[in-house]
Structures are given as structure tokens and as C-alpha cells.
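In practice, a research group might receive sequence data for several interacting partners and want a quick structural hypothesis before committing to experiments. The following worked case mirrors that situation: the sequences arrive first, and a predicted assembly follows.
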Amino acid sequence: MATRLNFRWFDITVGALFILLCFLTIYPFLYALSYSLSNGQSVLTQNMYVWPIDFTFDNYKTVFANNSILSAFYISVLKTVLGTALSLIVIATAAYSVSKKHLILKKSILSFFVIPMYISGGLLPFYILIFNLGLMNKFLVYLLPGAFSGMFMFLIKVYYETLPGEVEESAKIDGAGDFRVFASIFVPLSFPVYATVALFVGVAQWNAWFDAMLFMSNTDLHPLQLLLQNILREAEVTTFSQVAALSGPQGIKRTSVETLRMATLMVTTFPILFIYPFFQKYFIKGVVLGAVKG
Amino acid sequence: MKQQRAGGFLRTLSQQKVLLLFLLPAMGLVLVFNYIPMFGLVMAFQDYKILEGYFHSDFVGLANFKEFFASPDFYQALRNTIAINLICLVVVFPMPIIFSVLLNELVSAKLKKTIQTITYLPYFISWVVVGGLFYKLLESKSGVVNVLLHSLGMEDIPFFREAQYFWPIIIFATIWKGIGWNSILYLSAINSIDPHLYEAAEVDGANRFQRIWNITLPGIAGTAVFLFVLTVGSLMNGSGGASGSLAPNFEALWNFRNALVAGKSDVLDIYAYQQGVQGAQYAYAAAIGVFQSLMSLVLLFSCNFLIKKWRGEALF
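A structural hypothesis for the assembly, expressed as C-alpha cells:
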């Protein structure tokens, strides 16, 4: 009897802990969302906990009317799409070659890819390199340096190696070259692993800001994350208060710098929140596979 | 004979031209963006001038290293790096283990799935956004945490204005962002434990804690050791542990720091960034990078050595 009671208490405690954890995970997003849907003036004088105060879309209207936010959004979308496509092409083709047993100099080529996964030159030599390559202030700086990833190449390689070899052999006997085999046999069969890699690369591209902070002094090419960082900190507040002032020419002003900040933060987060539930299984499959191999 | 072999090599080369063509972009990118910076570390031993480059800058031996060893700012950054990472090793590292062991105790598969879906989410949110959320919630006076404190009759806590709160905040944020995601490997290790072990233990009358202690924990010990060695190896260079979120990296600290808390927040990575990039002291910062890499290697190998002595096997 005593032990059974013990068990029940254990279950209740564990359940309560997980509910608390889930609440702590969700609440910050919920708070920011509600805040961004609140009247910017009312929320300064009343305490908001869960629901918006004086519900309004004005903050979002102001954010989407702001040219620098729109252009940063566009830059982020562009670099995410192009960066993901480029990475997939570079990584999927290289993975095809290293998955072949008969590849010439295979050992040396594999070591060539493995060494940089453990050793790096660090920030400063990298910074100097980008400078010397003339990539400063070029859009390409978002795409090229991170286009390849050894980890994802090995992930795709492992996947290719699980594909049945017979189809490939018979295609080869029929005279198909490596290019044909890759394009018409491997690519159509590898959608799940491509999805995993594309999602990781895409999320990393969308979330990246440090490359822009290092290499992009031209603010016209700043991605949304870096603009958000500036808006959350002091730098961008002046332009924002102008926006806020302009947004309510007649009548009552219903935005404030604080609610506009949270609206921008939510706009930056929405794309991730939208794709996340649909692609969760790909995310998890990727990390488990990668760890087994690594 | 030799000619024949050379001929064979060339023939293979031409047979595999598509394979080699496929490798070309990847190898080119790795050569340029990974290998050249490794050789670029030579700048740490130079009086590096960006316009003169590696080939025309003067070599100065260990002068850059002597300079930062003489700087009090360096020691503050070193202290912060060691302190934050040590606390993380003790506090953050076990969290995903506790998380996955307790999750495994839940009966409902649907509930498990929901908890996983929710707690993995923060991993995919950028540190810029996470920083923004924490600043908002922990704001002095109007932040919801302080509002709650006020309503309980407690004093306002100036979270981001006094340096003493910085370490607890950043460690909480690191747990918040990574606890779910970092448990994935442990959960997959638990899933691969033979279910018969649990059944047999139950028949033998083992209670829940005995089952956790004798079956679940030994089942994930290998994964834990693997992650522990990798985490220790990345402590000094701020790359934040094996899966990127067991200790705060540069991106995390940069979005949580401000001038008021700099004394506690500015680790070696931030110090090197400020000196090197913002202050254009390239060689000085590169030397700090070399120091960090060396320390990482020492930590990695000694941790691996100790664990090998203790368990008989380790990472390598």
C-alpha cells in the first residue's frame, strides 16, 4: 500500500514537472504574441499577463508598412531559399561521389572532408579571408562560406548506401553514366534525407545574423534577424518612433516602440513556427542518424 | 610496369570524371573556407597588417600572446569563460538526462509526443529572438516576472541591469532552449534498451527507482560519456557543446549581454571579437583564438584519458 501511494506521488510529480516545463516553453511566445496584438499605449499603463489589452492589428500594419523591415524580410527569404538550394546541390552531389566504393583516392578525399569537422582556423583568419576574397558587403557572403557541410554530406552518404544497388547496376549495364544514375535513380529516392538537410540548412539560414554583422556594413542587405537585433536594442529605436508617430496621423495612436518591437519579433519567428510542426519528424530523424554515424 | 600503373590511374580518372566533377564544388569550398583559415592562423605570430597580408607582415614570435597575458581584460574574459562553462557542465549537462529518464516514465505515448513537440521548439528559434523574449519578460518594473514579484509583495529585481544576475539568466536560457532537443539522443538510446529487461526486473520485484537506476541509466551511460567528452572539448572555444546548446555560445551571450553586465557576460569569444573585429587588432585576437583552441585540445584529450582510465573505453 505504501509503495503504491509512493508511485502515484511519483507520477503526479513527474506530470506536474512536465506541465510546468511546457508552460515555461510556450509562455514567452504567447506573451510576445499577445503583447504585439495589444494597443501600444494601453499596454504601457496596464499589466498584461496572457490576453492582449485592447486587441489591435495596428502594430503589424505598421511593421508591414515599414520599408526597411519589408526589405530585410525579402533578403532573409531570398538567402534562405538560395542558400538552401545551393547547399543541397553541393552536398547531394559530393555525397554521391563519396558513397561509391570504387572512388579513386577515396581515403584521402574522406580525410580531406573530415579534418575541418574537428579543426578550424577560428574567427579572425576567417574574417581576413572574406576581406581578401572581396566578399565584404556582397550578398554572396551569405551563401558561399556555409554552403558545404561535412556533417550533412555524411548524413546523405549513409542514406545513399542504404539504397538497393541492383537498380544502379542494371542501369550501368544499359550504359547509363554516373550523371544519369544520380539524376534519375538517386535523387528521386532520396527525398526524405534531402528534406532533413534542407530544413536544417534553411532554419540556420533564416536564423543567421552574425555573418551579416561581421561582413555587411551595407544595411540595405541586412537580414531580418540583424534588423530585429538592432530594433530590440537602442540603434533602431529612433527610426521606429518616427514610424510610430507617422502611423497615427489623426486620431489616437495605438502603437508604441515596445509593441512594435514585439510585432517585429513575432514576424521574425512566424516562419519557423509555421514549418515546425509539419517537419518535426525530419528534424529528429536527422539528428539521430547523424549521431549514429558521427 | 610503372607506366602501366600510371596509365591505369589515368584511365580510372577519366572513368570517374563525373564523380570527380561532383566533388569539385564541395572540395573547392572546403579548401577556401576551411583550410585557408587554418593556415591563416600564422597571423597570430605576426604583426599582422591587413594591407600587407600574410606574406609581408613581420613575424613577432609570441608577442601577441605576451600582450594578452598581461591584460587584465583578458583575465576577466577567461574567468567568465571558465565560470559559465563549468556551471553549465554541472547544471545544464545533466538536464537532458533527467528529462529523458522522466519522460520515459510517462505511460501515455501521445503525451510523450506532445511534450517532445513543445520542448524541441526553442532549439529552432534564433538567439536574437530568445534574447528579445527574455529581455521583455525580465524587464525591470514592467516585465511580467517583476510584476508577479510585486504582486507577491517582493522587491523589483533589475535582472539585466546588475551583473550578478547574468549567470543565472544565461544558464536558465540555455536550459530553456536546449533541454528538449538535447534529450533526443538519450531518448533514442533508451528506446534501444531491450524491453525484456524491464519486464524481468518487474517480475523480480524491482521498484521504479531501482529500474531507472539499474536499467535506464546504464542504458544511456555510453551516450552521456560521448556527449560529455565532446562538451568538455568545446568548453574553451565557446562552440557550446556537441549539439550546440549545452553551453551558451557567442550568439547566445551577444544577445543577452549589455554594457551594464559586461563584467560577467564577456567571455573570450566576445573579447576576441571586440578586440579583433571592432578594434581591428587582428593578430591579437587570432592569438586568443589559438590559445582557446590549444586549451580545448588539452581538455578534450585529458577528459578522454581520464574516462578511459575509469571506464576502460572513451571517445577515441
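Before designing any experiment, note the following. Chain B touches chain A through 85 residues (CB under 8 Å). Chain B has a mean pLDDT of 89.
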